[in-house]
Amino acid sequence: MSCNYAEGLSPYEHKGKLGIPEVFDDDETVEVKVAKLAEWIRHAKHVVVHTGAGISTAAGIPDFRGPRGVWTLEEKGLKPNVNISFDNATPTLAHMGICSLVQSGHIKYVISQNIDGLHLRSGLKRTNISELHGNMFVARCSYCDREFIRPTSVPTVGQKEIGMDCPWVKAGGRICRGKLRDNILDWEDNLPDKDLDMAEMHSTIADLSISLGTTLQIIPAGNLPLKAKKNNGKFVVVNLQPTKHHKKADLVIHTQVDKVISKIAAILGVEIQPYLPEIDPTCILQTLQDSTNSWKTRSLSDWTIAAASVSKMKSIAAAIKDNKPKSVSRKKRKTDKVNEPISDHEEEQDLFVPTRPPEKQEICLAELSRKNTEIVPNGVHPKDSNESD
Predict the structure, then answer these.
(1) Pair 73, 302: CB distance under 8 Å
(2) Which parts of the chain are beta strand (E)?
(3) Is 283 annotated as contributing to ligand binding?
(4) Number of domains within the chain
(5) Most exposed residue of 146, 165, 243, 258, measured as fewest CB within 10 angstroms of its CB?
C-alpha cells in the first residue's frame, strides 16, 4: 500500500509543496486541447511520456501531494481512507492506454516515477520504460545487478535484502552467488544508472514530451520533460494541480489522465486493450512458483535493461547531438538523488544539466566512442487519474 511504502522510507523533511488546489477545465476546453495534443502526437517522431502517481489513483492507490495525498494528510496527522494493496491493484485505463499507444508506435518511451508496478503489469516491455524510483514487483541482485519480476510485491523498501538468492544461472551452469534486494529507492538514494541513462537519452531526442499525473517537483525526473524544449520540441502537462513547470509548457490540460488517454486513443484510431491476468507477468509467475529454478521462469522474470539497448540509444543520442548547435549550461550539477524537491530559485535557472558526478560523466562520454559488447539474455519484459504525485 502507498501508506506502508511511505512509512517504510527514512524520515525526510522536504517533501515539496503539498495539497495545492486542483483545477478542472470544462468539457469543451478539454475536447479542444485533447484534439490538439492528438494531432501533435500524430506528427511527432519521438513521443516520450512521463508518469507520476496521479495516473494510479483510479486503481485505488493514493497519490502523495494531492489534496488527499499520503504526505498531504500525513502533515495533518491523517491517512488516506482509500488505500488498496499493491498486489490487489490493477492497471488503470491510462496504463492500458499508454501500453496500447506504445504498441501502435505513437509513444516511443515511458519514464515513470511510480513504484506500484502497474506499467509492468499492463504488459509494457522493459525496452519501453525507465523506472527511476523502483518497482514493488522487482528485485535486484546485489552481485550480478540483474533484475527479476516477482509474483508478489516485495516486503521491504530502501534496497534491503528480501531473503531470496539470485535465480540467475551463468554460462556453464554456475549459479550466481548474489542475494536479492528490493529496488525501491529511499530518500536521497542514487537513481539506477541504466534507467536514468535511457530516460535522459530518450528525453533528449524527444520532440514531444507529455507529463501525466505529476507536479514535477522531484529531480531529476521532474526536469526531464523540459529536454524536449531544448530539441525544439513541445512539452505538455496533463494534471489537475498546477506543476512546477506550467509556464514552460506548450499545452496544459486540467482533467483526469484516464479521460485524456482514452480520447487520444479514439482520435488516433487505437483500441485500448483491457487488462487481463494473462498478460500480467506477475500473474503468470504465480502459476510457476513450483518451478522457480527452471529456465522458463528465469527467462520470464528477467527485467534487466539490456546493455545493447543502452548502447544503441547512446549511438542515436550522440548522432543527434553532433548535428545540433553546441550550448553551454552554467547551472551547477545536481546530484541524481531521488525525491529532492525543486526550489523556486532553481525553477528559473537552466534545467538542462548533467545528473552525474564528473567521473561518471567522463565514463559516459568514453562509452559513446566504443561499442558495448556485453550480452544480456532476452526475457519477457513485463488512478481515474485525478491527482499528482
Answers:
(1) no
(2) 47-51, 109-112, 129-131, 138-141, 147-149, 161-165, 179-182, 208-212, 218-219, 234-238, 251-253, 340-341
(3) no
(4) 1
(5) 165
Q: How many residues does the chain have?
A: 389
Joined together, the cell numbers standing for residue 45 give 517522431
Q: Is 3 annotated as a binding-site member?
A: no
Q: Are 257 and 385 in contact (CB under 8 A)?
A: yes
* Domain membership flag for residue 310: yes
Quote the distance between the C-alpha of residue 186 and its chain's center. 16
Does residue 133 carry a catalytic annotation? yes
pLDDT at residue number 173: 84
Q: What is the pLDDT of residue 234?
A: 98
Q: Grid coordinates representing 63?
A: 497519490
Q: Is 383 a domain residue?
A: no
Known binding residue 144? Answer is yes
Quick one: pLDDT at residue 325? Answer: 52
Going from the first residue of the chain to its last (389 residues), give the mean pLDDT of each consecutive group of 10, the final group possibly shorter: 72 86 96 98 98 96 90 86 89 98 98 97 97 97 95 94 90 89 92 96 97 94 95 96 94 98 98 96 83 55 93 87 53 38 38 36 37 34 43
CA distance 162 to 137: 12
**Of 110, 19, 126, 13, the residue nearest 68 (C-alpha):** 19
Q: Kindly report, residue by residue over 361-372, the tens digit of the pLDDT.
A: 333 333 433 333
Please say whether the beta carbons of 383 and 2 come within 8 A: no
Burial class (CB in 10 A: 0-12, 13-18, 19+), 231: middle
CATH code at 34? 3.40.50.1220
Q: Residue 32: which domain range? A: 2-367
pTM summary value? 0.82
Could you tell me if residue 384 is inside a domain? Answer: no
Q: Does residue 104 lie within any of the structural domains?
A: yes
